[in-house]
Amino acid sequence: MNHIVVIGRLTKDPELRYAPSGVAVGNFTVAVDRPYVRDGNKETDFIPVVVWQKLAENCANHLRKGRLVAAEGRLQIRSYSNKDGQKRWATEIVASNVQFLDRGKDEQTEQLNDTDFGDINLDNLPF
Predict the structure, then answer these.
(1) Is 24 helix (H, G, I), strand (E, B) or coil?
(2) Each residue of 91-111: pLDDT tens digit?
(3) Which helix (H) or strand (E) covers residue 76, if one does?
(4) Contact (Cβ atoms closer than 8 angstroms) between residue 103 and residue 75
């Protein structure tokens, strides 16, 4: 079974691009604190996450650096050759689900604006 869940904060805004086939693919990195302190300092892992299709577009549109997320999916380890021909390894989460665990500044503003009645005369309401 290959199943992983991480909770952490984005280190930068997600990147979104499209494969030649037109499928959306997004990347972001999640900073996850380790559960212990070494020499008085917290240690943090920086875990790359890959998202596909509509999930990639949603993440790119709604997530920003510093947002708290939970990424759930499978761990993928792949190899590739760099421009010098050396074999390199990449470890990443291929996420099938990303939960937004806090609200961004824009969303908090939008929520406050939803309660603004503007020029409506409250005396004319039927209730």
Answers:
(1) strand
(2) 999 999 999 998 766 555 443
(3) strand 68-81
(4) no
Strands 24-38 and 68-81, by their bridges, are unpaired
Residue type at position 115: T
Nearest by Cα to 30 from 16, 18, 14: 14
Question: Domains in the chain, please, with CATH?
Answer: 4-114 (2.40.50.140)
**Is 0.85 topped by the overall pTM?**
no
Per-residue CA distances from 38 to 42, 44, 82 (Å): 6, 11, 34
Q: Which two tokens stand for residue 96?
A: 């099938």
Which residues have C-beta within 8 Å of that of residue 91, sequence separation ≥ 6? 48, 75, 76, 77
Query: What are the pLDDT digits (tens) for 42-69?
Result: 999 999 999 999 999 999 999 999 999 9
**Residues 62, 51: Cα–Cα separation, whole Å:** 14
Q: For residue 87, list its beta bridge partners.
A: 81
Angle (CA) 107 108 114, round 5°: 85
Are 97 and 34 within 8 A, CB to CB?
no
